[in-house]
Amino acid sequence: MSNQQWGGQPYGRPGQAPWQQGYPPGGFGQQPYGRPAYNPYGQPPPGYAPRGGPSFGGRPPRRKDRGGRLLLLALIVIAGLSVLGFIGTGLGTGSTGTSADSPYQNNDYRVPPPDLSPPPLPVPDTYEQAEQVTTSSPFYGQSAPAPVRCDAEPIDVGSASDAQLEQHFTAAMECLVRVWEPPVTGAGLIIVRPSVTIYGSKMTTKCGTSGVNAFYCAADQQVYYSNRLDDELPIVAQDKWAADVVIAHEFGHALQARTGILISAKALGQNANDEQTDLLYSRRLETQADCFSGMYIRSVSQSLGITQGDLQGIEGTYRAVGDDEVTGNATILGNHGLARSRVFWGDTGLGNGSVGACNTFTVPASQVR
């Protein structure tokens, strides 16, 4: 991660961005595998300024300013925003695009290649808009088509080469875009196809440096997958669909970014000036991404031959990445959600075609615990 210092630090520790203040030293706590804590947001590029604001420096607006501009530089920097990864860190059917000779939905849609220069992410102007986006996005009024064709076959990630992993996840991204293009564009938004970069034990992106994990980085709107994830998360090697659940979860974060849900939730959580509230927003994001991943699996299950017999393994993937399972602490209040919550929302997606079923921002906090 960049060691660039923030000028005129009025908020605390030298070199720390203002929107990182108010957290325990090192971020959200000890990483579950003994690695130094990973800063999920990273440093903004020199001179970066989001819409409606100067370069970073001002104190975050207080709650009384809710009707004013959402000064994102004082809350969160899109260029440095990433999602922590699939692993917690301690704390009806549509009918779009059918063709007469195909049983699959949206089959005539030509999936674009990976977009390495995607359009900017949508940004809310006020806190009220941010709350509206998270709770009442037009995206929630859409449906994910099913069944949808997918040509990505199961892969043994434990023995696959980097080239094979890249080939598999590239194909999976094509399937993900084919599933999610109708509801995203139906909401009047833009869908982007991310690339998938395979890396080893460490990866430095515009969002900072991450260890072994799978994650989405909003700075470049791309997805990253460690070829050692099966060592940290054995179920990825044990279940043939686990890797696809993981990558679909990360694409869920891409959906949140392209719909404005991601930046809105992060801004609201950080503006609360309360760690527990910020963690709650994080859990709502993560469990929603679980729901989106389950909805994707539902859409492509016919094409891939996924059956009820595979449900136990799929649910086991969600369970294995619960904050309590990762840390061994049954009472932890973390940033991804307990195993039971992650299974619940994964199952919710598996059983629904309505995107609104994945609205984790209007349910009681206990349902994303």
UniProtKB/TrEMBL annotation:
Source species of the chain: Microlunatus spumicola
Instruction: List the InterPro entries hit by this protein, alphabetically.
Output: Uncharacterised_pept_Zn_put (IPR007343)
Superkingdom, taxonomy of origin: Bacteria
What residues form the membrane-spanning segments? 70-91
> Quick check: keyword Ribonucleoprotein in the entry?
no
Locations listed in the record: Membrane
What is the protein name given in its UniProt record? Answer: Neutral zinc metallopeptidase
Disordered, as annotated region: 1-63, 95-117
Q: What is its main location?
A: membrane
For this protein, the record's PANTHER family field holds: INNER MEMBRANE PROTEIN (PTHR30168:SF0), PUTATIVE MEMBRANE PROTEIN YPFJ (PTHR30168)
How does the protein's chain sit in the membrane according to the entry? Answer: Single-pass membrane protein
Give the keywords, sorted.
Answer: Membrane, Transmembrane, Transmembrane helix
